[in-house]
Amino acid sequence: MSANGSPTGQQPTATYDSAFLKACRREPVPHTPVWFMRQAGRSLPEYHRVREGIPMLESCTRPELVAEITLQPVRRHNVDAAIYFSDIVVPLKAIGVDLDIKPGVGPVVAHPIRTRADLAQLRDLTPEDVWYVTEAIGLLTAELGPTPLIGFAGAPFTLASYLVEGGPSRTYENAKAMMYGDPELWADLLDRLADITAAFLKVQIEAGASAVQLFDSWAGALAPADYRRSVLPASAKVFDAVAGYGVPRIHFGVGTGELLKLMGEAGADVVGVDYRVPLDEAARRIGPGKALQGNLDPAVLFAGKEAVETKAREVLEAAAGLEGHVFNLGHGVMPSTDPDALTRLVEFVHTETGR
Question: 45, 63, 99, 316: least surrounded by Cβ within 10 Å?
Answer without folding.
Answer: 45
